[in-house]
Amino acid sequence: MRDGLNPQKKDALVACTYNHRVIMVVYIPEFRGYYAKMFEVFKLSIESLIKTLPKTSAITLVDNSSCEEVKNYQIELHKAGKIESLILLADNIGKIDAQIGAARMSREPLITLTDCDILFDIDWVQETIKVFNTIPKTGSVAPYPSRRSLTYATFSVQEAILKRKYKLEFKPIPENFENYNMFLESINWQKEINQNALWPILNVGNVKAVVGSDHQVLTLRRDILFNTVPFEPSYIKVGNHSEENYVDLPIDVFGFFRLSLNKYKAFHMGNSPEAWMYDKLNHLSYKSESLILKLDVNMKYPRSKNRLQFQLRKKLIKELFKFYVPKAYKN
Predict the structure, then answer these.
(1) Where are the domains of the chain?
(2) Is the distance from CB of 255 to CB of 305 less than 8 angstroms?
(3) Which one of 3.30.1330.30, 3.40.50.80, 3.90.550.10, 3.90.1150.10 gives the CATH number of domain 16-330?
(4) What is the mean pLDDT of the chain?
(5) How far is residue 26's CA from residue 72's CA, in Å, rounded to a whole number?
(6) Which helix (H) or strand (E) holds 179?
(7) What is the distance between the alpha carbons of residues 13 and 98, in angstroms, rounded to a whole number?
(8) Residue 91 vs residues 62, 237, 294: alpha-carbon distances, Å
(9) CB 19 within 8 A of CB 293
């Protein structure tokens, strides 16, 4: 039996308060081994994120079956109003399925997918939105540059460069040297010794973006998740090409650019906190402004694409682009 009229029917429309949402998946099942110091790393990450978000951005945390202490910490963040949304999963469903599921239920036109070991710096959202507003074909932007991702899932931007629609420059960015080595160290890669190493820079007006990105954290168009990302679940906990298949390649296959900021506005921490991370966090102040997003709403998203045709085009672009890249960058 129903008694009366559901009051929600009188005001059926739901307002969209934000234009950008950050989705962070958290999985810390214990405090030993690999995860011994991950809780402290996660706290640094979420605190830096809360401090650096403008009013037009919101946070969704997805707890992927962490231990009770970590889960309770996230619940307290939600109760305090520091995060807008919290999803608690009883079982670990894998990083990509947790990210994509939460992203598809969000309504904001820009979605940031991030690991819980990223330290965010001031103005990272402002600089990210500036790239989207300036370069219409932008599909994703990472908040820190990737010097060696020029030819990974970037065939769409390579084609645009070869057609002279955009200009690519190879220049050193000496101020990135220290931060770049910090990133390489965080993933146990060999450090860069050349302070004047070249970076692939797309120059559009007063905006500079590096071509390519890593995928520990990136901001992408929400529409891509409904038009180019596989519809079936990944069923993979982490790695095994899951990020490649569900994030990197879909952006590129359908003609969008994978870019990153040309300066470091975020940092990869790894699984162990260091003194510099606390220093950076302590120098952050809370943001309060609203940001205007100007995405091209008429962008076409084909639901199917001839993969064979794309592979042939990709192979041709790859060969032609080799002649465009200076030898000094390859070394």
Answers:
(1) 16-330
(2) no
(3) 3.90.550.10
(4) 87
(5) 12
(6) helix 177-186
(7) 27
(8) 12, 11, 38
(9) yes
3-class secondary structure per residue, 191-247: CCCCCCCEEEEEEECCEEEEECCCCCEEEEEHHHHHHCCCCCCCCCCCCCCHHHHHH
Q: Name residue, tokens 């950050």.
A: 22
Q: Give which of 36, 31, 163, 25 is closest to 96, Cα–Cα.
A: 25
Using CA atoms, how far apart are residues 240 and 260, in angstroms rounded to an integer? 23
Amino acid present at 122: I
Angle (CA) 294 296 302, round 5°: 150
Residue 118, helix vs strand vs coil: strand
Q: Which helix (H) or strand (E) holds 108?
A: none
**Angle 130-167-162 (CA atoms, 0-180°, nearest 5)?**
125
**pLDDT single digits (tens) 193-242:** 888 889 999 989 889 999 999 878 999 999 888 877 766 666 566 755 67
Residue 34: strand, helix, or coil: helix
Tell me the pLDDT tens digit for each residue of 90-112. Answer: 999 888 889 988 999 899 999 99
Structure tokens at 237: 């906990």
